[in-house]
Known about the structure:
This protein is α+β, with helices and mostly antiparallel strands. It contains 23 helices and 6 strands. It has a 4-stranded mixed β-sheet. β1 and β2 form a beta hairpin. α1 packs across α10.
Amino acid sequence: MPDPATLTQRFAEWSSRLGAVPDDVRGAARWHVLDALGTGLAAARLGAVDFAVEEAMGYGTPPEASILGYRTRHPAPMAALANGTLIHALDFDDTHAAAILHGSAAVLPSVLAVSEVVDATLDTAVDAYVVGVEMAVRVGAAATRKFHNRGFHATSVVGIFGATLAASRLLRLDPSATVNALGIAGSQAAGSLEFLSTASLTKPLHPGWAGLSAVMAARMAARGATGPSSILEGKWGVYRAYADTTVDAGGVTTGLGESWEATQMTTKPYPVCQYSHATLDTLGLLPDDLDTGRIGRIDIGLPRDSLVVVAEPRESRLRPRTTHEAKFSVQWNVATMLLDGYLGVDHFTEEQLGRKDVRRLAAKVFVHRRAFDGSLAEAPGDVTITLDDGTTISRTVTSGSATPGRPVDEGALLDKFLSNVAGSVENPEGIAKLVIEDGALPVAELMSMTSRS
């Protein structure tokens, strides 16, 4: 049988033929699922995006799927909207460096919602999640940075395709219907980066909208709706319209089913933009007895494309107006970590934004452009601190933590989950064990265990 002509046909055929994913890939994916559940539950506990949750909860029937942290059930598309927004709300969710993509936030919400509808087990759900991540990452990595350079958020623009492929697999759509679902979803692919220029909170909504649209697209295709099979590489497709580029379909799918992108995603040790991670890692190498009161100046280097995201315009980065804006301020992050010795979700509250000591120290942080041609998430980090007597202290790291070359170990991942869900669920250790080990667990039962109200 000749290879299908378009990318959506290639992925649909592959997903249809694929049985269970390899055990090692499924095992890695389970840790990402656990991490995403933890970041979503932390956001629910902190009320980070109550506006999205409350809107989703306004739709009570049919009671198909759960929202992380709540007992009530809602239509599957609305549950996906809420869960995608929650998982991404704290910017603490996993990423894929080459695709510049938050994989779990984009794909997992549709998986959770549809899994409850079809009564899927965790093994079945995780396999669908892996398939969705594979498509989202490969589609995104084929145009690395090009979506962002034109002002689009890749997590939303390409994440919707992975979310739709996963939902289609769970609904057991045939390849033709899956292609239609992907074509339908492409008309909903969106996500403006304009939030970087304002204090708005649209960014966490992007994977939520992708999840909602994915569930709707798959369901519509199941009812006979059609969509263009050339939605990705066609004349008016996503690559041309959103990235001003063309791709080779064969190149995008080379090694499909042999190499697995779910094993290349990384989890975050800090709840801020990953472009700041290498800089923050250098701070952990400074002397324990460093007196922050003696710091006269702090110099750090960032690649140009990172600098414009987390360091400019300087004035707004020194005095972030919202907690979300603070996550995109390397100056504010550096000052906070130097003063407190760590950087956690509890730092991103309205009260924390008003700290005068952080503002004073942030004003001493100066960011310089450094040359770097690779993946921004894997860029080196450097810091030079000049004390009041002229003494300088410098530290460097070759790349940021939580990159494929420096993955977070399982112990740290478990600690992160337990910290995120502290006080919001019963028996968090038991939940973690089930997610990592119990493939027969119904997803609906797992979601009920996350309820807090």
